[in-house]
Amino acid sequence: MTIRILSSEVASQIAAGEVIERPASVVKELLENSLDAGAHHITITIEGAGQRLVEIADDGQGIPADEMELAVARHATSKLQNAQDLFQIATLGFRGEALASIGSVAYLTLTSRPMDAPLGMRLRVEGGLVGSPEPVGAPVGTVVRVEDLFYNVPARRKFLKHEMTERRQIDALATQYALAYPHVRFELRQEGKLSVQTSGNGERREVMAALYGVEIARQMIEVISREDQIQVTGFISPTSLTRSNRRELKLFVNGRPVQDAALSAAVLQAYHTLLMVGRYPMGILFVELPTEEVDVNVHPAKAEVRFRDANRIFAGVQRAVRRALLAHSPVPHLGGAQLHWPESGDRLSKPPTNSTPTNLPRWGAAWDMAAGGDVPVLEQDLRREAVAGENAGVETGAQPPTNLPPANLLPARMPLLRLVGQVATAYLAAEGPDGLYLIDQHAAHERVLFERMMAQAGTQAASQAYLSPVTVELPPASARLLAEQLPALEHFGFQVETFGPNTFLVRAVPQLLSGMDAGQALKVLVEDFEEDETPLQAEREAKMIARVCKRAAVKAGQVLSQSEQQALLADLEACDSPRTCPHGRPTMIHLSVDLLERQFGRRGAR
Ligand code: ADP
Ligand code: MG
Question: How many DSSP H helices and E strands does the chain contain?
Fold first, then answer.
């Protein structure tokens, strides 16, 4: 085949493919244009899951009559003039591609009237061919009508997902922007039915209530933080409100929705060890940075951004989330005589009358109290799932709980327990105020050691010196990782020096690992680290500590004396997060009296 220059029609279809992938991309681009135009009221109409019609009407500034044709031309924009501007972008659009792209893969009708014009203008584009603008009567603002998307790109049409999926995507998108722009009134109608509506009164929690329901909106924890030029606002779910995937975690950077795996990882890390494995928080967070700190021109669909100083941003976001989360943290609940932990069947029962929660700050001194109610962090989901695991047939929590009990119902710490004994040399059985508790001795000990070591961070942990230093060689990748972490290692009791390529001299290991040979001890630190992408030093340290603890903790199969069992229980009770091991698995299962009674047929199933 000889080399040929593509016809402009094909070339523009190819270019359009990068921006307009599906109906939701049309909605996104048009919504962004309306927001850039300063609209206060945006109405979206969808038919045929967006393939037959997407229409967006706004009351923004409109397009002057003599710029109508330019608006639909490729690389024509009013938002950017030169390359320097790319680092000062304050608008959502800037590439001048959306209308041109849409016009080349659909029938596009653009109607617009600026405030000072007596009449509006209308322009039609069909398969990339631009008609001539004609005057029409129109309200101030802009209406963009997109019909028969991909009518001339059958291949693309085949790739569209099921209509339901497309509709859901459009719903999600409108929801996201509605939350991001609470001062704008949004209305989305899909197939004639109103599916998203907000008032535009500026209250984000109200928008949340309109979109997710009052109960969820009430429970969400507000994040407000400003720290060296990084502002983080928004809402995150308490640990009791989780999802089975991370899709409900939405991130905005400078008003732009972004997909950034590392940034969402930073948020997830803030929940580290507080959620069950496989559970994710919900949240919507708005990160505001000076424009020159972010490069938004990474991706044609503008869904990705690049940060100039990513680590600083991630750490800032994580701190903001962690602080908000801990400000609503569980209450040490001691001496409560009749604590009541409802099972899935009786989650709406009354709170214990003697519980008087007070939020105790436990995370550093810098502390900006997040506003928004006194909702303590709860772990009822953990409990529910722990019990569900034992109780076949009970929903394991893949679906979000719909009937959450009042958020202040439950103590999140563990009650005082009376030891019964060891079971199967792996579990401790204990009696509590409401039934039986089975405690995984390994997971529980991991938690105890982990909190102890974390509390020591900064001070020198006890270490055990070898009589003569031992040299250890590691594979190159592990060696590199370890070398980066050497200064941190000292805090938790290692004395290690580099000793030639990939070789280390180990003088001492933490007391906790004293029985172990030096090579093994070092490997504990770096095993599985390769796949670990966390950019945060504190997080890396926590992970290494968790690894050490995993190694050092008593194992299943280990016989514990009565006093050892007693000590483990007491230590666990003293933990901040006694219900999960540092990797997020439950340390205990609760079998309530109620459950036992039902199992023994003393009480009918409800
Ligand atoms: P971009 O948004 O990147 O500038 P678009 O192709 O989306 O590129 O839009 C081209 C131009 O058309 C915009 O720069 C803007 O001047 C104008 N425009 C598009 N939509 C609207 C709207 N809803 N209201 C006012 N002007 C608009
Ligand atoms: Mg645009």
Answer: 17, 25
C-alpha distances (whole Å) from 203 to each of 175, 178, 198, 207, 499 are 14, 11, 10, 6, 60
Q: Which residues line ligand 1 (CB under 6 A)?
A: 29, 33-34, 37, 58, 60-63, 71, 76-79, 93-100, 142
Backbone angles phi, psi at 577, to 5 degrees: -125, 75
Q: Please, is 601 exposed, middle or buried when counting C-beta atoms within 10 Å of its C-beta (0-12, 13-18, 19+)?
A: exposed
Confidence of residue 1 (pLDDT cuts 50, 70, 90): confident
* C-alpha to C-alpha distance for 406 and 426, rounded to whole angstroms: 35
User: What are the Cα distances from residue 403, in Å, to 50, 343, 347, 390, 604?
Assistant: 34, 12, 8, 21, 22
The encoded tokens of residue 366 equal 């810098």
pLDDT over 80 at 606, yes or no? no
Pick the residue whose CA is nearest to atom 1 on ligand 1.
96
In contact, 327 and 366? CB cutoff 8 Å: no
Residue 464, pLDDT above cutoff 60: yes
Cα 579 off chain centre by: 22
Three-state SS string across 474-531, please? CCHHHHHHHHHHHHHHHHCCCEEEECCCCEEEEEEEEHHHCCCCHHHHHHHHHCCCCC
Tokens of 408: 């202040």
CA–CA distances in Å: residue 558 to residues 367, 427, 452: 42, 10, 22
Query: Which residue's structure tokens are 């459009």?
Result: 170
pLDDT one-digit tens code per residue, 246-282: 888 999 999 998 988 889 888 998 887 777 777 889 8
Amino acid, res. 553: A
Tens digit of pLDDT for each residue in 11-31? 888 887 778 989 999 999 999
CA of 77 to the centre of ligand 1 (A): 6
Contacts of 255 (CB under 8 A, 6+ apart): 92, 180, 181, 286, 288
Ligand 2: centre distance to CA 448 (Å): 54
Residues with CB under 5 A from ligand 2 (ion): 33, 93, 98
Going by C-alpha positions, the residue among 550, 329, 565, 331 that lies closest to residue 453 is 550
Q: Which residues contact 387 (CB under 8 A, 6 or more apart)?
A: 343, 344, 394, 589, 590, 591, 592, 595
Tokens representing 143 are 């209406």
- Which atom of ligand 1 is the closest one to the Cα of 99? 6
CA dihedral 126, 129, 135, 141 (to 10 degrees): 70
